[in-house]
Amino acid sequence: MTDTWLVVGLGNPGPTYAFTRHNIGARVIEQLAAENGVKLSKHKRAAALVAELRIAGKHVVIAQPTSFMNESGGPTKALVTFYKVAAENIIVLHDELDIDFGAIRVKLSGGDNGHNGLKSIRKSLATGDWFRIRLGIGRPPGQQDPADFVLKNFGVSEQKILADLISQGSQAVESLVATSLEDTQNRFNS
Fold first, then answer.
1. How far apart are CA 170 and CA 106, in angstroms?
2. CB within 8 A of 124, min separation 6: which ones?
3. pLDDT digits (tens, 9 = 90+) for 90-121
4. Could you give the 3-state DSSP secondary structure of residue 132?
5. Secondary structure of residue 71 in the 3-state scheme
6. Mind telling me the catalytic residues?
7. Which of 161, 146, 128 is nearest to 22 (CA)?
């Protein structure tokens, strides 16, 4: 294994899903690429867009699987194998219904809480012992089905909070790579 870090932002491919709640992890990857002046491009062996950068002197691969959310495990496993990444150097960014919109929780391992992207990655890697940056999207209003809610675009009134959430997600990645889980949790787990 190498000291390389892999940061995977979950979402669904294509313009139909680009601005949905389910794609917030992928949006953080786009933010990281922009902030670091790198361009995401197709990987030669994985169904993913990737870029390589350095954070605190460490080699970091940022990735957006180009598969659908519930098939995120295959591309993630291919990248882990290609770059020889240890489980303790994997960070997955994903939407989280059980956290208020705009809040973040960073943790190591845990269940998938019904999230099909996490379930797919856990199955493909045969472990759940990797970092998660859980990006709060809140619960759907009224009786709306959560499956429908995550596939809806953020509203106009949510854009300011959304921009802050994406920025916080990017900063949390940098903190995890540069410092420690404890420092990152103290800073971001609101």
1. 12
2. 73, 74, 76, 77
3. 999 999 999 999 999 999 998 888 899 999 99
4. strand
5. helix
6. 22
7. 146
CA distances from 124 to 81, 118, 189 (A): 11, 10, 28
Residue type, 181: L
Distance CA 32, CA 170 (A): 6
* Alpha-carbon span 41 to 63, nearest angstrom: 9
- Identify the residue whose tokens are 């802050």: 164
19-30 pLDDT, tens digit each: 999 999 999 999
Residue 77's Cβ-count burial label (10 Å; 0-12, 13-18, 19+) is middle
Q: Going edge to edge, which strands form the sheet with 41-42? A: 41-42, 48-55, 58-65, 5-9, 90-96, 131-136, 104-108
Query: CA–CA distance from 14 to each of 28, 34, 53, 64 (Å)?
Result: 16, 19, 25, 12
- Any idea which residue has 């699987």 for tokens? 65
d(CA 137, CA 121) in angstroms, rounded, equals: 21
